[in-house]
Design brief:
Blueprint (H helix, E strand, L loop, with lengths): L1 H19 L10 H6 L14 H13 L6 H6 L1 H5 L1 H7 L2 H7 L4 H12 L6 E5 L6 H12 L2 E6 L2 H10 L6 E5 L12 E7 L7 H13 L1 E12 L8 H4 L1 H7 L5 H4 L13 E7 L4 E7 L4
């Protein structure tokens, strides 16, 4: 912990330089247009389809693509919506620095929860920079399962597709996490990896409800995200102002237990584990069988 804290200023400077390398897209290039831009040479969204089939599917999907949520276009354009963000943030060392050297530990903690059920059907809600999904796909492939990934932004799906092998047992869908198209009880497990802190409360509540709805009875929802650090953790005092500016919804997870956003009629078993002086949490929710 002390070593990580000593290295934090260097990591913070790297992140600041990355942020400053971006500028908001001009009015002549709307963010929603940038998010949906695609070409026949873009990576295959449905990895198990041919490039020709993908091009036709992508053209049809573009017509029915969900609108980019306002909170994303206004608050997170610099991190996810602008295609230039992929160039900046798709670096393993950078996502690890943003998490103060904890990316691998948190990734592995989530994968350890998902591995026992990887032979079934797994849903990942939202794309993730770094190697989280390639590692998850590897576990799913080893167990003979299937992975579905949803994201509302085409640019993020294209980036993820470029990181996966064409024969990976994964299907990518452009969908809004607050209104999934899957039937209830479709999945054995669902994972939200550093997603909830980026959402306003109404969207966060709807996303959790949808993630639970599509789980089969007895299925598992795994959440990894921020948590309020202990009073002995210096980041409790140093990191809050940064989150307040760059990720204004994140402090909701400091003020509230994730159980606050569960559907009020659901009495699920919840297990929580804290990391790095309480700054991060892993929450495992078991959907009731009856």
């Amino acid at each position: 912990f002390p070593h990580a804290m000593a290295a934090a200023p260097r990591r913070a400077m790297a992140v600041i330089r990355a942020l400053h390398s971006l500028s908001r897209p001009s009015a002549s290039a709307p963010i929603t247009a940038l998010a949906r831009a695609g070409s026949p040479s873009s990576p295959c969204v449905r990895l198990q389809a041919s490039l020709t089939t993908h091009t036709a599917q992508r053209a049809a999907a573009a017509l029915a693509a969900p609108a980019t949520p306002t909170y994303l276009s206004e608050t997170y354009w610099w991190a996810y919506v602008d295609p230039r963000a992929v160039t900046v943030f798709e670096r393993q060392w950078l996502v690890n620095a943003i998490l103060f050297g904890n990316f691998g530990r948190l990734r592995d903690a989530a994968l350890a929860e998902l591995a026992p059920r990887a032979g079934g059907r797994t849903l990942q809600v939202a794309c993730v920079y770094g190697d989280f999904t390639p590692r998850l796909v590897g576990e799913v492939a080893r167990c003979g399962g299937a992975l579905d990934v949803v994201d509302v932004l085409a640019v993020q799906l294209d980036n993820l597709a470029s990181k996966l092998a064409e024969d990976a047992p994964a299907t990518l869908h452009q969908e809004n996490s607050a209104s999934l198209s899957f039937s209830s009880g479709s999945f054995d497990q669902t994972v939200l990896f550093f997603l909830l802190h980026e959402m306003p409360e109404t969207v966060r509540r709807a996303t959790v409800a949808e993630a639970l709805r599509v789980l089969r009875p007895g299925g598992r929802l795994v959440i990894v995200d921020y948590h309020r650090p202990s009073s002995l953790n210096p980041l409790r005092y140093l990191f809050a102002p940064i989150l307040d500016v760059l990720e204004p919804f994140a402090l909701d997870l400091w003020r509230n237990d994730i159980r606050a956003w569960l559907p009020p009629t659901m009495h699920a078993a919840v297990r929580t584990e804290l990391f790095f002086g309480g700054l991060y949490q892993k929450v495992v929710i078991e959907k009731p069988i009856a």
